[in-house]
């Protein structure tokens, strides 16, 4: 998928795509850096979109890691399916992150070690955001992490309220600049 297609999808559904331009490789590195692949069994990515974070995750996957990609945009899902359906440890789901519990159970998991989220919490309806974070909280392992990014600080306290601890890091090499938020229970 190219940048023009990405912009077209944004124009069709700005609330769910959330950005006018794909994330930078610098942001992708910052989002994936906290994932402890040596310790993780199940990693979930919410809203992989064009796969910028997915590519970084796939580069670092170890044989014992399973990556579950949950995408609700049909064009993005089909593009990801073409790229990743041949991998036995990458599972694609066309659906909503709100249903993470049933999605991971469908793939044989009860817990998730890391959730990497590209979802635009600032533009999602509050009830959708609440359900996604509540359900994520239910499935995240005690030492797991929820990693997301936002363009503004508007939703920091909302997102972090579901977890005991959080850290932020600003990534200026992105259009627009972004804040990576790492949330955990420890």
TrEMBL record:
<dbReference type="InterPro" id="IPR029063">
    <property type="entry name" value="SAM-dependent_MTases_sf"/>
</dbReference>
<dbReference type="InterPro" id="IPR041698">
    <property type="entry name" value="Methyltransf_25"/>
</dbReference>
<keyword id="KW-0808">Transferase</keyword>
<dbReference type="GO" id="GO:0032259">
    <property type="term" value="P:methylation"/>
</dbReference>
<dbReference type="Pfam" id="PF13649">
    <property type="entry name" value="Methyltransf_25"/>
</dbReference>
<dbReference type="GO" id="GO:0008168">
    <property type="term" value="F:methyltransferase activity"/>
</dbReference>
<keyword id="KW-0489">Methyltransferase</keyword>
<feature type="domain" description="Methyltransferase">
    <location>
        <begin position="43"/>
        <end position="144"/>
    </location>
</feature>
<protein>
    <submittedName>
        <fullName>Methyltransferase domain-containing protein</fullName>
    </submittedName>
</protein>
